[in-house]
Amino acid sequence: MTDRDRAAVSGIVLAGGGSTRFGRDKLRASVDGSPLLERAIRGVAAVATDVVVVVALGDRRAVPSGGVAIRTVHDHEADGGPLVGLVAGLEAVAEPLAIVVAGDMPDLRATVLELLIRTLVHADDGIAAIALESRGRLEPLPVAVRTGVASSSAARLVADGERSLRGLFERLPTRMIEEGAWRPLDPESATLRDIDTPSDLEGRA
Known about the structure:
By secondary structure, this protein is an alpha/beta fold. Helix content is 31%, strand content 23%. A 7-stranded mixed sheet has the order 5-4-1-6-8-7-9, sandwiched between helices. The chain has a two-stranded antiparallel ribbon with strand order 2-3. The longest helix has 13 residues, at 110-122. The chain is globular.
C-alpha cells in the first residue's frame, strides 16, 4: 500500500467488550508474548496512520499499544455492544475511509486489510462498506467503511435500538469480497481468528 493510500485511511479497534466468556480481561492476556489488544493495534496500524481505540465507558487504564501512536475514545454507553463502539470510533477518526477490527483479533494480515481498503477505494460511490465472505456469509469484522455514511447510518440504528454490526451491514450498501479472492492472501484464514475463551489461547501464551 502506498503512503498516499495509508494517509487516507483511519483504523478503528473495538476494545470495549466485557470479556464475559473469557472470565478476565482478555485484551491484556498474553498472545505470543504480547497483549492481545496490542497485536490488534499493530495489525491495523500496518495499513492506517490514524488509529483510534474504542474502550469501555469509564475505562481509564493505559492501552497497550506497543509504541503505536493511538487516540483513545470511550463507548457512549456501558455494555452497548460493538455497534455502539463503532459509532464512537467513527465520530473520532480523521480520514474519509476507515478499517475496523476487533481488539481480540491477534492475527490480522496486512495484505487482507489492504485488499478491503483497495476494493472500497475503487468501488462505486454508492458502496459504503467492503467485508469478507467466509463460508457463504458476511463476516462483520474486519471491514472497510466510508466514514461519513457509516457514521450517520450507525448512529441512526443505535438510536433505534440496534446493537449488532450485522444489523448495520444489512442496511448499509455493502459488498463482499468472495472467499476465493482473499483466501490466497491468507490461506489459514488467520485474519478472521478471534479470542473468545482461554482455550483459544492454548499453546500461544
